Amino acid sequence: MTGRIFIVPNTIGGSISSSIPLDVQGVIKKTNYFIVENAKNARAYIKKIDKNINISKLHIWQLDEFGSLCRDNIENLFIALKKSSDVVLLSDAGTPCVADPGRSVIRWAHENNIKVIPMVGPSSIIMAISASGLNGQNFSFRGYLPIKSAQRISYIKCTEKELYKYNRTQVFIETPYRNNHLYSDLVMYCSPSTVLSIAISITTEKEKILTDIIYNWKKNQITLPKEPSIFMLGKY
């Protein structure tokens, strides 16, 4: 019998009770082995799930800056799984491996015939697309755009061409303090008929999902908060 790796979502700003299903919480409560993005944040999340969990008895292995486990921890992971212990892969926010680290662990699991079980939970990208009114049948997640202005503008123009050629919604994220830089460039350099949707602070009390054509965004420009946001370009 071999243990399994559970891909367990974290909250993205909302409460545990509203974001994390009870069966997911149950997996966390029963597990002693965790692979995490940040050990301190993981301990705080686990404590919120159940304050009676003895954190000191848990085995918590933190991914490095490249999203991988060191050789020693890979060996420890293999030993735990061979002893039939289940392991949780946990990110700081949302679903691991989707705009978050953890892919190398899952690839390793498949290479070693370890069963991988994805659990239900929040993903800001999917939630934003579903609430945007844009094409959710065909989309590209672009991650972070280039930081340098000229490269970012060029990238925006290229992705807009793809949008119109394939009717493929284009999805971006940005560091919150740079939200207005990206917003300004999208409004400035996209076609007036292109649709821009911005999903701000999904699942929190500050949540806003705004969708309109660039022409109207340009007439009624706003200042975005420094909150986690998803940007989407589409067409009606």
Features:
single chain, 236 residues, alpha/beta, 5-stranded parallel sheet, 5-stranded mixed sheet, 9 helices, 10 strands, 20% strand
Structure description:
- The structure is a single chain.
- The protein is an alpha/beta fold and 236 residues long.
- It is built from 9 helices and 10 strands.
- The protein has helices at 16-19, 22-30, 39-49, 71-82, 103-111, 124-132, 149-166, 179-189, 214-219; strands at residues 5-8, 33-36, 59-62, 87-90, 116-118, 139-144, 169-173, 195-200, 208-213, 229-234.
- A hairpin with a 7-residue loop joins strand 8 (195-200) and strand 9.
- The protein is elongated, with a radius of gyration of 20 Å.
- It starts with a strand and ends with a strand.
Helix content: 25-40%
**Main sheet attributes: strand count, strand direction, barrel closure:** 5 strands, parallel
Structural class: alpha/beta
Placed side by side, the strands forming the largest sheet appear as 3-2-4-1-5
Quaternary structure: single chain
The H-and-E topology, N to C, reads as EHHEHEHEHEHEHEHEEHE
Number of strands: 10
Instruction: Characterize the overall form.
Output: elongated
Query: Strand-residue fraction?
Result: 15-25%
Number of helices: 9
Low-confidence spans: none
Rounded Rg? 20 Å
Distance between the termini: 52 Å
Mean pLDDT: 95
